[in-house]
Write a structure and sequence with these properties.
179 residues; alpha/beta; six-stranded mixed sheet; three-stranded antiparallel sheet; binds inosinic acid; binds magnesium ion
């Protein structure tokens, strides 16, 4: 019988260690003052939950809000249109903002989010992504704080899904056919 298994790319320990270093880099970049962390749902929720606690350990006390974005397209690639499914409740005018998301791939999602927050008058907008997949960039955006540069594979776990499955995995891996 043919099944599927997950090949681990980043363990929970590796991710936790990297999160600590990212939080210190965010603090040292001077974003801490009146910081609002904007977690992008759904994929960014696990990373954001760990990042705010890593920020606490780095001496940063952010506010936290959520924005649910969907980029429409078929299957495992994201298309051109980004839609706000759930907006922030926080007024970001004059605030430092850290956008936190799972993956930067085409960049459409995060370019959209960053533009929106800048238009709303945020003071500084930083972008933290756990994974960067630079091979498919379409929009002009880079992460300011990047966990790992990821191989060009479809990854799951640590908040990231494939067909709504696998978000609960404490590690990041990719799905392979096992026979
Ligand atoms: P983009 O940068 O606008 O192309 O979209 C990035 C978003 O696509 C991420 O926030 C994820 O939600 C999703 N995504 C891209 N690559 C993967 C993957 O390998 N696994 C799971 N979701 C992915
Ligand atoms: Mg996403």
């Amino acid at each position: 019988m043919t099944g599927r298994r997950i090949e681990v790319l980043y363990t929970a320990e590796t991710i936790a260690e990297r999160n600590r270093a990212l939080a210190e880099a965010i603090r040292d970049a001077g974003l801490s003052d009146r910081l609002v962390v904007v977690a992008i749902l759904k994929g960014g929720f696990v990373f954001a939950a760990d990042m705010i606690r890593a920020l606490h350990h780095a001496g940063v006390s952010p506010e936290v809000d959520f924005m649910s974005l969907a980029s429409y397209g078929a299957g495992t690639t994201s298309a051109g249109t980004v839609k706000v499914l759930r907006d922030l409740q926080t007024d970001v005018t004059g605030r430092n903002v850290l956008i936190v998301d799972d993956i930067l791939e085409s960049g459409r999602t995060l370019a959209f989010a960053k533009r929106l927050l800048v238009e709303r008058g945020a003071a500084r907008v930083g972008v933290a992504v756990l994974l960067d997949k630079p091979g498919h960039r379409v929009a002009d955006i880079e992460g300011d704080f990047v966990g790992f540069t990821c191989p060009d594979l479809f990854v799951v776990g640590y908040g990231m899904d494939m067909g709504h499955a696998f978000r609960e995995l404490p590690y990041i891996g990719h799905v392979v056919d096992a026979d």
